[in-house]
Design a protein that fits this description.
single chain; 462 residues; alpha+beta; Nuclear Transport Factor 2, Chain: A; Glucose Permease (Domain IIA); 3 domains; 10-stranded antiparallel beta sheet; 5-stranded antiparallel beta sheet; 8 helices; 23% helix
Length: 462
C-alpha cells in the first residue's frame, strides 16, 4: 500500500525490517470506550432487576420502559463537542497600575513613564469629563489603570470625597462616566488632659493632626496654645469620622468642643448657615470668634514683648518696642488678624517690607520685616481674618527672621497680647432658634460623656 502513514495510528520508529510498526493506540481507545459502556450496561441491569418504587419515591421511573437494554453506538466526536460546551469561560485578567501624581506631572508624562498607549490617551482626553479632570490634576491625585500590555482597559480616579471618574474601553471606543460614592458620617467623642502640650496630649488620645489643628483654630481667639497652656488643662470633643464602603477615610469636622484652661471653661458648637458658611458659637449663641486674632502667625516663640522701655538690639539705644515680635522660620505665612482693607504695602524705614490694615472701630494693625508679600495684596484690597498677606522674613532693622506685629486704636499703640479684643457678632437672629434647638441635645450628650470620664477617673484612683 502506498497510502501516506497517519500520525494517529502509527509512530515513526522503524522496525528491523524497515517497515513502520503498527501502534496500539486504536486498540486502547476501543478499550477505553468499552469500559464505560460495560459500566452503563451493569447499572441498567441492576435497575431492571430492582423492585419498582412507589410514585411517592424521590425518583419515579418513566412508563413504558423496556426490560432489555439497547446499546447505541456513541460517536466520539459528539462526546468531545459536549465536553467543550461544558468548559466555563474564564474572564481575562488584566494588569493593574497605580499612577501617583507628583509636582510637575502631566497625564502624558505618566503614560510615557509607565509604557501606556499615548494614542489611547489622546482618545480619552477628547471626552469632556476626562479633559476637565486631566487639566486640573495636582500632586497627591491617584489614577488606577487596568491595562493589557499597555493597552488601557479602564481608568479610575477620585474627583472629590463623594464622586469619581471611571473610563472604560468598549467596542465603540472609550466611555467616561461620573459615579457617586456616598459617605457615612460617624460621631466620635474624645477626651484629653494636657501635661506638656496640646499636640502631645491629643496624639496620646489617638487624635489626628487634622483634629489637633482644628482645636487650635476654634479656640485661637481665647487661648494662646504656646503661652497660655497649663498642666492639667483638659478638653472634650465630639467630631465626625468619614467612612466610605465600610472603610474609614478621614476625620471630618468638630461638632462641639470644650476647653478648660487655667480655671476657665470655653465651649463651642458648630453651625452651618444657608450659604454653607460654618462658624462656632457658644451655647448661648454668642460668637466664639473675636474681631481679631491674638497671634497672626504660627510662631515658635516670642522673641520680644511689648515694652515701652526696651533697648534696641541694633541701635543700642532705649527705644520703645510698641509691638510683639513672633520668631518663626523664613517663609512662614502671615495672616490678617481681622477683616479690613490694605492701606499700605511697601518698604517702611526700619520696618522693612510692611503691610498696614485698616479695620473697623478706627483700629489699624501693622506687619513688618516680611520677606515678601502675597502677589494679590495691593493698597485698597479687602482682606478677611486669617487670609495670608505675606511671609516671615528679616528685612529692615532685624537680626533674625520674625514678624513684628502692632495693634493701634485711634493711632495709639496697645499691647496685642493683652488688649481687650472686640467680639464678633453673635449668630444671626434668623438662625438663633434653630441653633438653640440643635445645641441642646449636643450639650446634653456632652454632659453625659463628661460624667462618664469623671467616673472612670475616680474609679482608677481607688
Amino acid at each position: 500500500m502506498n497510502r501516506p502513514v497517519s500520525n494517529l495510528l502509527h509512530d515513526y520508529k522503524q522496525s528491523a525490517s524497515g517497515q513502520p510498526k503498527k501502534s496500539k493506540a486504536l486498540q486502547w481507545f476501543a478499550v477505553g470506550l468499552g469500559i464505560p459502556l460495560i459500566v452503563v450496561l451493569l447499572m441498567n441491569m441492576l435497575n431492571t432487576s430492582a423492585p419498582k418504587k412507589s410514585p411517592s419515591s424521590a425518583s419515579i421511573a418513566s412508563p413504558n420502559v423496556e426490560e432489555s437494554l439497547i446499546l447505541t453506538p456513541i460517536d466520539p466526536m459528539i462526546l468531545l463537542e459536549q465536553a467543550e460546551t461544558t468548559i466555563p469561560t474564564i474572564a481575562p485578567i488584566f494588569k493593574q497600575l497605580v499612577l501617583n501624581v507628583s509636582s510637575g506631572d502631566t497625564m502624558e508624562k505618566l503614560f510615557r513613564q509607565n509604557n501606556l498607549d499615548i494614542g489611547q490617551l489622546m482618545l480619552i482626553a477628547e471626552l469632556d469629563e476626562a479633559r476637565t479632570q486631566f487639566r486640573r490634576i495636582k500632586p497627591g491625585d491617584v489614577f488606577k489603570v487596568s491595562h493589557d500590555d499597555g493597552q488601557v482597559i479602564s481608568l479610575y480616579t477620585k474627583i472629590d470625597l463623594t464622586s469619581a471618574l471611571i473610563i472604560e474601553k468598549q467596542e465603540s471606543g472609550f466611555v467616561a462616566k461620573i459615579i457617586d460614592e456616598p459617605i457615612e458620617r460617624r460621631k466620635r467623642m474624645a477626651y484629653g488632659i494636657i501635661t506638656s502640650s496640646l499636640f502631645e496630649s491629643a496624639a496620646a488620645a489617638g487624635l489626628s493632626d487634622k483634629i489637633i489643628m482644628k482645636i487650635a483654630e476654634i479656640f485661637a481667639w481665647d487661648v494662646d496654645f504656646v503661652l497660655d497652656i497649663r498642666q492639667g488643662d483638659s478638653y472634650y470633643l465630639q467630631f465626625e469620622e468619614i467612612w466610605q464602603n465600610g472603610k474609614y477615610v478621614s476625620d471630618g469636622d468638630i461638632v462641639a468642643a470644650e476647653f478648660n484652661n487655667n480655671g476657665r471653661t470655653i465651649q463651642a458648637i458648630r453651625f452651618v448657615d444657608d450659604n454653607e458658611r460654618s462658624n462656632y458659637f457658644m451655647p448661648n449663641g454668642d460668637s466664639l470668634r473675636k474681631a481679631f486674632i491674638r497671634a497672626p502667625v504660627d510662631f515658635t516663640r516670642i522673641s520680644s514683648n511689648f515694652n515701652p522701655n526696651r533697648k534696641h538690639p541694633i541701635l543700642n539705644t532705649i527705644r520703645a518696642h510698641r509691638g510683639v515680635d513672633y520668631a518663626a522660620p523664613r517663609g512662614t505665612p502671615i495672616k490678617a488678624s481681622g477683616d479690613g482693607k490694605i492701606i499700605f504695602r511697601g518698604t517702611k524705614s526700619g520696618y522693612g517690607k510692611t503691610v498696614i490694615i485698616q479695620h473697623g472701630g478706627n483700629i489699624t494693625t501693622l506687619y513688618a520685616h516680611m520677606s515678601n508679600y502675597v502677589s494679590k495684596i495691593r493698597v485698597g484690597t479687602k482682606v478677611r481674618q486669617g487670609q495670608t498677606i505675606g511671609f516671615v522674613g528679616s528685612t529692615g532693622l532685624a537680626t533674625a527672621n520674625h514678624l513684628h506685629y502692632e495693634y493701634r486704636v485711634n493711632g495709639v499703640h496697645r499691647n496685642p497680647r493683652t488688649v481687650n479684643l472686640p467680639d464678633a457678632k453673635p449668630i444671626d437672629k434668623k438662625y438663633r432658634d434653630e441653633f438653640m434647638v440643635r445645641a441642646k441635645p449636643i450639650m446634653k450628650e456632652f454632659k453625659k460623656f463628661k460624667n462618664m470620664q469623671a467616673a472612670e477617673i475616680a474609679y482608677s484612683k481607688q
